[in-house]
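Lecture notes, continued. The same structure-token format from the folding unit now serves as the input rather than the output. Read the line below as a description of shape only.
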């Protein structure tokens, strides 16, 4: 983490509201990319001397003040109801506490514009999800928020949406275990949804004769359960697959570190790909579909390989053994650190608050 004495030489400490979705705790108990980023950013900002006010579920952890938006994160209850009421309540709580902070950092995706239009404070709005929806431009047009995308590819998803900044996600990766002597298994870490490509990962395992370990939370929505029953379950019979479920982070990291390679055969435009940098921090190369931000993270022939389909990704796997796992780890720790992410956001906060009294 950064030394507050050096950072605060460049300006006064700020009071920063970090506004999380009501779906998962911060940090998440297991899987939850957005919430991990919010936790890392909050810790880094607090270490620099800023005051962090975190709006999140009541069981969340904050380095500063915590304002509970829901008693329990919605996914913890397996709740499939429309979460609109909880998002609206989150915005109401932010507005009711505006005197306590200088800037709002919203992580609410398409609820961010509503927050920005209602707030008297400047709003930095990071989008963590996909933006290639037909109505995205209409929802984001003329919003007063400072819009932030996670990657260059993410910012290009909607030609009509103008982002003021691109800030790559960052994590504290130094503590990730290093897989110096990996096994022969492949791994898949993610959601059990069609866009994440778990069926393609199973196909790659079948094509290469390698065992595949799947780390994924149980299907949550009805559509996910239908996909699992109709697509994934039949595919499991075609390959050597071990389903490990949703593991705690320490156990999941051991799976990453001990794997020959991690598969990311997503067929949607990944806004970033946190799992990719976590795998690389373990020294484990990533073999991915060339979509979204993954080509910005996985440097071909250095961090892993990219392919257009399961056949191409399977064909790339033999070359993984020649990659330098120690160098992969060193590079990703420098490229995607929590400190770099916080540097970028801190500069944005100071820019948007410069005209405030």
């Amino acid at each position: 983490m950064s030394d507050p004495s050096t950072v605060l030489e460049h300006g006064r400490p700020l009071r920063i509201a970090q506004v999380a979705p009501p779906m998962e705790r911060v940090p998440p108990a297991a899987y939850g990319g957005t919430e991990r980023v919010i936790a890392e950013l909050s810790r880094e900002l607090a270490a620099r001397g800023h005051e962090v006010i975190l709006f999140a579920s009541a069981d969340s952890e904050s380095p500063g003040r915590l304002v509970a938006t829901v008693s329990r994160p919605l996914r913890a209850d397996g709740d499939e109801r429309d979460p609109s009421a909880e998002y609206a309540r989150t915005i109401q709580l932010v507005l009711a506490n505006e005197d306590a902070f200088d800037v709002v950092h919203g992580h609410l995706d398409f609820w961010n514009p509503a927050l920005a239009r209602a707030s008297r404070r400047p709003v930095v709005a990071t989008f963590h999800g996909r933006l290639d929806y037909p109505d995205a431009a209409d929802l984001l047009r003329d919003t007063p928020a400072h819009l932030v995308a996670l990657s260059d590819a993410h910012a290009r998803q909607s030609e009509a949406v103008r982002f003021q900044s691109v800030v790559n996600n960052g994590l504290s990766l130094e503590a990730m275990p290093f897989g110096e002597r990996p096994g022969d298994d492949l791994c898949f870490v993610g959601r059990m949804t069609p866009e994440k490509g778990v069926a393609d990962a199973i196909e790659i395992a079948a094509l290469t004769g390698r065992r595949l370990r799947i780390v994924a939370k149980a299907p949550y929505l009805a559509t996910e359960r239908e996909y699992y029953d109709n697509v994934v379950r039949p595919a499991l019979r075609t390959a050597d697959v071990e389903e490990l479920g949703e593991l705690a982070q320490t156990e999941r990291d051991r799976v990453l570190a001990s794997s020959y390679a991690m598969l990311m055969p997503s067929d949607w435009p990944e806004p970033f790909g946190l799992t990719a940098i976590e795998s690389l921090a373990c020294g484990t190369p990533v073999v991915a579909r060339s979509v979204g931000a993954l080509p910005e993270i996985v440097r071909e022939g250095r961090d892993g390989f990219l392919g257009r389909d399961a056949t191409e990704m399977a064909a790339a796997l033999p070359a993984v053994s020649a990659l330098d796992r120690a160098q992969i780890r060193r590079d990703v720790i420098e490229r995607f650190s929590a400190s770099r992410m916080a540097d970028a956001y801190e500069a944005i906060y100071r820019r948007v608050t410069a005209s405030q009294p």
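Point for the exam: Confidence is low (pLDDT under 50) at residues 1-9.
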